[in-house]
Design a protein that fits this description.
Elements lengths: L2 H25 L20 H19 L1 H6 L5 H20 L4 H14 L7 H7 L5 H21 L6 H19 L3 H21 L9 H19 L4 H7 L1 H16 L12 H8 L3 H22 L4 H23 L1
Helix pairs in contact: 1-2, 1-9, 2-4, 2-9, 2-10, 4-5, 4-10, 5-7, 7-10, 8-9, 8-10, 8-14, 11-14, 11-15, 14-15
């Protein structure tokens, strides 16, 4: 049976499940309350990530069952480890959403899951990495660090209505284009699942948000996005990946460098990210979202232009994407 049938069925089921969860949380008066470190000004339920992540998990399991041999032939030795790691992070994040976990314990759990999930990455990755760095354990650390970077980057931008939806949609759509052009069924299916999850989330997260994604969604989604990034990196698409992710990569890196130069603790919660500041200072939120959407459309065009182009064109597109984000950041601050 066509796998799209299962994806469509799961989409409908977990869309209804999210409506039920939303109504349940409202009935029990369980809300994410506004605070100085949060963007929203009115109390809003969080937990739409439960339905979104369950949709992803069920879809991935179905794909794995139907195409196990094909996945193994794609040099993915233990794809099931990725799914197990995703589920564990999901369960831990649900607990964190409603009861809270010490941030250092949470970070330790994330590091452990990423380390144990290294075996789900392509076999060719290590040979590719060793061509740059011959010390294998250092390669492990680099991969784990970058995987965690994408996991937490996705989590940081959940609290601003609809930003996380736009990011997931455009980044996953870019990955889908790579999968289609490379005839890579694995990337096609994971990307389709993520695009559908962004649409599922978008209904609840569209400004003003009815329902936040929460850690139960942003952490597992970030984990899966990180896996695809690493997979496509070893396939030679680093510049294209950097272009479509420029918005959040630039924001996180510049903000954390500034804090380190001021000897500030980067591990405590703050609202110093560039796009958070722009959002907070903008009275017309719909205008902000329109500009943000245009930024991602521009990045998507640059990504598409760079794809399959010669290195010189790729670097030009990457440079333009960085300049575009710098201009947007500085103009929007005024």
């Amino acid at each position: 049976m066509n796998v799209v049938y299962f994806y469509s069925t799961y989409f409908f089921i977990f869309f209804l499940a999210n409506i039920y969860i939303l109504n349940y949380l409202k009935k029990k008066d369980i809300y994410d309350l506004p605070s100085q470190f949060k963007s929203h000004k009115i109390k809003t339920p969080k937990g739409s990530g439960i339905g979104v992540t369950l949709f992803i998990v069920f879809s991935l399991i179905t794909y794995y069952i139907l195409f196990e041999v094909e996945i193994e032939n794609s040099d993915i030795p233990r794809f099931y480890v990725l799914m197990v790691g995703l589920v564990i992070l999901f369960l831990i994040s649900i607990y964190d959403d409603y009861l809270g976990i010490n941030p250092f314990i949470r970070l330790f759990i994330q590091i452990t899951i990423c380390f144990l999930s290294l075996s789900s990455l392509p076999i060719n990755l290590w040979g590719y990495m060793n061509s740059y760095i011959t010390f294998s354990k250092l390669n492990w650390l680099i991969i784990i660090y970058f995987w965690l970077f994408i996991v937490n980057l996705t989590n940081f931008f959940d609290g601003v209505d609809f930003l996380i939806t736009i990011k997931i949609f455009f980044v996953s759509l870019a990955y889908l284009i790579i999968g289609i052009n490379e005839n890579n069924n694995l990337i096609i299916n994971i990307s389709v699942i993520l695009v559908l999850s962004s649409i599922l989330l978008g209904y609840f997260n569209l400004y003003p948000a009815k329902f936040f994604l929460g850690d139960s969604g942003s952490i597992p989604v970030g984990f899966l996005l990180g896996w695809i990034f690493i997979y496509l990196f070893q396939k030679g698409f680093l510049i294209e990946l950097l272009i479509i992710n420029t918005v959040h990569f630039y924001d996180i890196i510049i903000t954390e460098i500034k804090k380190l130069l001021k000897f500030q603790n980067i591990f405590i919660r703050h609202r110093d990210f560039i796009f958070q500041k722009i959002y907070d200072s903008t009275n017309n939120k719909r205008k902000f979202y329109f500009k943000y959407l245009l930024i991602y459309l521009s990045l998507f065009i640059l990504f598409f232009t760079s794809y399959s182009s010669e290195l010189r064109i790729k670097l030009v597109c990457l440079g333009i994407s960085i300049i575009l984000i710098i201009i947007f950041s500085n103009v929007s601050k005024k």
